[in-house]
């Protein structure tokens, strides 16, 4: 199903409240530059033929692979920065004459700004384009990393860490949006799994790298290395990333370019780039709320597992150096790599299997079936066994290492499905980046709270009981996914009806 020029002329008058009386006439004259693929209200690939040529076939496979590889590297930057300092917390605290809890708080604030960042860059990259957004945020991440390495006091350290998070996290929103632009729905989870190789492995290899650096040199070298990684993150998109955003007459970029006056442009730009748009999209979509909460419980679990390792495992196993404790991060990191190899393919396989069961019809919620068991059983059980084995000093080193590994595998099987679902239900409305942004906002708010409370909580109630809380949260998140699988399609249909009742133009803005 393709939007025709006649459709635009019908919807144009409703745009007058956006940018004045002249806007309707302007919009009616806008002609498509490239037709977008439109998914029906039930996300079925059966209803209506895909535009020819398909927007998903604009680039050859080798070019798609190259762009996904570049974005996977960029997606590594923010997560690795969020945890590389964990192995160096005592050394950083000593340098600034403060406590380890204070430095852990800086990491929690880092995650808060990781949560806020998508609300800005999600809507913005829908207007200025994917490549421009990547280059801008990469350059700022590079500069903020250098500033953090040179921070003279704890206040400067906090400020530059927060700015680093704000710019680096943009890649985690832009990357999925690019993949939504490039790949057919039944291919997206596989592509996303490769993109999230960096995002999932980064938090686990970061502390190992930090531990090696702190063992042999100054903790400040961590941030000089981070600046070097950011430099590669600028060069890669500059040379190898093409602009992928699907541009048609209803896209925000085209509408903005054709508005007649600067005032019209300013009003429209302020509306469509508002940081509140991802939040509004979440609040109007029960299915996206439940998927975001499920993602949040996984990130809570990830950071509450990784943050206290040096404080929990060092005394348990009599470890003496940051490098020794850093080696423990290899277990979940290796699990993430193993899970990445199969998680996306498994999600796409489940979708294709249900398409066959439904006689060729694709329903977006079927994708979520691929991760419920991994989240509600494997991940939660692994966290329980890890926590109580450490708390009760049983099983030696092998037992917690094995279940940290399984935890990494299970998470890597969940995230491709959760992220791809956001793309599937929002791509047709040109809101893929906003849907992913809302999801990331929730997940990193959970991560921030987990990072902030894990050290005092484990000191108060013990790692066993805190792990129990984390496991229960994941079970609740899995139940939310079950509800979405059961009722999500009906929720989306109701939401679509409400949008249509507002009129075509108002619906396009909602």
Protein model, in words:
With 510 residues, this protein is mainly alpha-helical. The protein has one domain (33-257, 269-509): MFS general substrate transporter like domains (Growth Hormone, Chain: A, Up-down Bundle). Helix content is 76%, strand content 0%. It contains 23 helices and no strands. The chain has helices spanning 5-11, 16-19, 22-28, 61-84, 89-95, 100-128, 130-149, 154-168, 170-182, 188-216, 220-240, 252-257, 262-272, 276-283, 286-306, 309-317, 322-326, 330-357, 372-391, 398-426, 432-461, 463-501, 504-509. The two termini are 20 Å apart. Mean pLDDT is 82; it is low at 1-49.
Distance between the termini: 20 Å
Give the uncertain stretches in residue-range form.
Answer: 1-49
Query: N-to-C SSE series?
Result: HHHHHHHHHHHHHHHHHHHHHHH
CATH fold-level assignment = Growth Hormone, Chain: A
Provide mean pLDDT, rounded: 82
Shape: globular
